[in-house]
Design brief:
heterodimer; A: 151 residues; alpha+beta; 5-stranded mixed sheet; 28% helix; elongated; B: 139 residues; 4 helices
């Protein structure tokens, strides 16, 4: 390895993916002003209940990158957890998603929530976010990003 | 193309330590994981292989065979062992810290080319249910 340049050493390192799972609870109501009351009820069904309802979301954050030769890690898990506490749990846990600025213009479906969480983790400097997967319930899950291993 | 995943479990001890660093630096970077008395996990391994379905057997790979390969190549080597002290790929002189990422890579290297009629697609290692690493053979 001594004869390799810094770039060559980095490119010789295997690329791996690390996934961390977080849980948060939030409420939402699926409703858009673009539809009439009848259309909202027809499209969103019981999710259109004006009082809202909630979920325990399971959020999987997948980060990809070269495994650091010194630490054996894709990123510092402690840094990731600190980031997630502030920018994921701090912003969304225990909240009514409809009241947040992020969902002023878009309906807080779990599709849109997943896109928002993906945007949030693009601000994490420790490693590149590759995919966000959110389980809304045990029966529904949503993914945004790339399929790991294809890059 | 069909993807097939087989699971296996092993329980191992490890600690994180880089001999190139001072004790203080190891503690700063690895925190509690740097305790040299070690700690342990119940790891869950998921190995995904890809291949075509044999028109006669209907199999991509004989699951009994895959189970036996995982047993011989991984479980017998890692289960109820101290990864730093008893598994060659994590010995101190290799400089390879037995993180979940490096365990996934090491298992890939153990299995690559071993599975008849199928291509190794993914090695996923759960350290706990809220943390897993994946390796797809990318360099």
């Amino acid at each position: 390895m001594a004869g390799l340049s810094q770039t060559e050493r980095q490119s010789a390192r295997p690329k791996a993916y690390l996934t961390r799972r977080y849980r948060l609870s939030a409420s939402h109501r699926l409703h858009t002003d673009a539809y009439s009351a009848e259309q909202n009820r027809a499209v969103y069904g019981k999710c259109n209940n004006p009082h809202g309802h909630g979920h325990n979301y399971g959020i999987e954050v997948t980060l990809g990158g070269s495994v650091n030769a010194q630490t054996g890690m894709v990123c510092d898990l402690g840094e990731l957890d600190v980031f997630a506490r502030t920018h994921l749990l701090g912003r969304f846990d225990g909240m009514n998603l409809n009241t947040l600025d992020e969902f002023r213009e878009v309906v807080p479906t779990t599709e849109n929530f997943t896109r928002e969480v993906y945007r949030v983790f693009q601000g994490f400097s420790g490693a590149k976010v590759v995919r966000i997967r959110i389980e809304e319930t045990g029966n529904n899950s949503f993914e945004v990003g790339e399929e790991p291993g294809r890059g | 193309m069909i993807f097939l995943t087989r699971k296996a479990e092993f329980s191992s001890a490890h600690y994180y330590w880089n001999d190139a660093w001072s004790a203080e630096e190891n503690l700063r970077v690895f925190g509690r994981c740097a305790n040299k008395n070690g700690h342990g996990h119940n790891y869950t391994l998921e190995v995904t292989v890809a291949g075509e379905v044999d028109p006669v057997s209907g199999f991509v790979v004989d699951l009994k065979e895959l189970k036996e390969i995982l047993e011989c190549e991984v479980v017998r080597v890692y289960d109820h062992r101290h990864l730093n002290l008893e598994v060659p790929e994590f010995a101190a002189d290799t400089g390879t810290v037995p993180t979940t990422e490096n365990i996934a890579i090491a298992i890939w290297r153990r299995l690559e080319g071993m599975i008849p009629h199928a291509r190794l697609h993914r090695v996923r290692v759960y350290e706990r249910d809220d943390l897993f690493a994946e390796y797809y053979g990318e360099r």
